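Researcher: Structure prediction, please.
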Amino acid sequence: MHVKDVMSREVFLVDKDQNLQDALKLMKKHKVSRLPVINTNNDHVKELVGIMTEKDIASRLGSSRYGNLAPSHFHVSTVMTPDPITIESKKSIGKAAQLMIENNIGGLPVVDDGEIVGMITKSDFLNSCQGRPFQENKVADRMTTDPITVNSQDRLVHARRLIIDEEIGRLPVMEGEDLIGIVTAKDIASSMISFRKVVPDKYKPARIRNLLVEDVMTQNVRSINEGASLEEVASLMVENDFSGLPVVENGDLRGVITKTDLMKFIVELEEVN
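Model: Predicted structure follows.
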């Protein structure tokens, strides 16, 4: 199977000089977590110069470097990651998955002859998680055990730092031995943006430092058990737009399974075939 068979052909682009808030509205409207960033030159040629993700927003807006500036003061170029990795539509999905895993990225602009023709993200791989290999392999075989967790009373800046340093997208929130929620890079990015909009400038740094995980986490979190098949977990992720799920058995957190874990399995299958 090739990239062109699974990629999304509807691509939402943002110019590097656009206001960050405009870009965020575009992401929210189209329910996407990343935007290719272009620079439109005098010949109206759209040159791909970067990519902006929710994790980039959480990283930049939560840093002391940008102080108490409101989102309206940022351009996309301030937040984006420059020189993004791309892939051609004729490449295999195994190659795309391998590139994304090796570089710890959630999506690739698809570029043919210098033109952006699509985007392939982790979500696009989920629909291919069907058939015998995905039915026979269980969550327990592919999940990440001993996941990094946080407490509901931990500061949000601590959770943000863990997500950045450990290069992960989510943290289960524990209260003692009980799983009580989950906090994601998206939650942190959204909270940082909302906070900067409503809090007066002089109070921003102190108030941001005092935000707690419980202030932004998702409660009543959906989980899955170790005996579920990979096909089941892929379907659950597609239906609910989840990027990862805690794995719970008899009330105990046993691990986390993510889109990345499923992609690693796809890479293995591609190598075998």
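Model: The chain has a mean pLDDT of 86.
Researcher: Thanks, that helps.
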